[in-house]
Design a protein that fits this description.
The chain is of the alpha+beta class and 256 residues long. It has a single domain, classed as outer membrane lipoprotein receptor (LolB), chain A (Clam). Helix content is 20%, strand content 45%. It contains 4 helices and 13 strands. A 13-stranded antiparallel sheet has the order 6-5-4-3-2-1-13-12-11-10-9-8-7. The radius of gyration is 23 Å and the shape is globular.
Length: 256
């Protein structure tokens, strides 16, 4: 009995450690890298991260600088992407891209990048102007490269959008470009993205998700874009195709 009394404090201490350890582990905060790994898996894992091409079509609403009414509505809005597997810059042109917006038979605008040259329906865009344009528009794709050498992820204070609690993670690319991602704490879907641009703070909200198979790909069908807190446009994607064949001629500047 005397021996038990001497050992009792040690036994209770061991028992306390054994019972507290799982709880302590469960409460260990996720790191930025761990959160982005969860987002990667929710988005489609390796199939999503290593996708080669993306084709999207739907409609879009564009708002002006004043007033509340839409400036123009594109009932036919399309985008084609050929991804750059070695992308390291978050906010510059990469891979190949073409976007067309139409209202009925009328073309609203068109923009393309063939891997070297940016062009619109008006012709070739000077490089300085093109760099400013892409710096204000490109940013989401870089999250597919998180975890590669030269990238870092920093967790910032949590936030919420439209009732969805978010983990906020700032992803820094090898060149120092920063992009802030909001990851749903329940589904781990990427619900927001933001970065500084020549036009101000740019933020996108993602909603109405659909999960595709072969390859696995989580697509937001409703994307809302803001600059300095003001809604600039909304996109409603209705058709998504991943890894389909895209003719390189689609990205060739007019007249070439």
């Amino acid at each position: 009995m005397e021996r038990f009394r001497r050992l009792a404090p040690w036994l209770f201490a061991v028992l306390a450690i054994a019972t507290a350890t799982p709880q302590a582990q469960a409460e260990t905060p996720l790191t930025g890298a761990e959160i982005l790994a969860l987002a990667r898996e929710a988005a489609g894992g390796e199939q999503w991260a290593n996708a080669r091409t993306l084709s999207l079509s739907g409609r879009a609403i564009f708002y002006g600088g004043t007033g509340h009414e839409p400036r123009v509505i594109a009932d036919d809005y399309r985008m084609w992407r050929i991804f750059d597997p070695g992308r390291e810059s978050a906010h510059g042109a990469g891979g190949k891209v073409r976007i067309i917006a139409r209202s009925g038979a009328k073309r609203i605008f068109e923009v393309g990048f063939d891997g070297a040259t940016t062009w619109t329906e008006r012709g070739i865009t000077p490089k300085a102007e093109a760099d400013r344009f892409w710096a204000s528009n490109f940013g989401f794709d870089i999250i597919r490269h998180a975890g590669k050498p030269g990238f870092s992820a920093t967790r910032l204070p949590d936030d919420a959008i439209a009732g969805h609690r978010l983990y906020m993670v700032e992803l820094t690319d090898p060149g120092g470009g920063q992009t802030l991602f909001g990851v749903d704490q329940q589904s781990h879907a990427i619900r927001s993205m933001g970065f500084r641009t020549p036009k101000g703070w740019h933020q996108r909200h993602y909603d109405d998700f659909v999960e595709l198979q072969n390859p696995r790909w989580l697509q937001a069908r409703h994307v809302t874009l803001y600059y300095d807190g003001r809604k600039a446009n909304e996109v409603f994607w209705t058709d998504t195709r991943v890894n389909g064949e895209i003719d390189s001629a689609l990205f060739t500047p007019p007249g070439d």
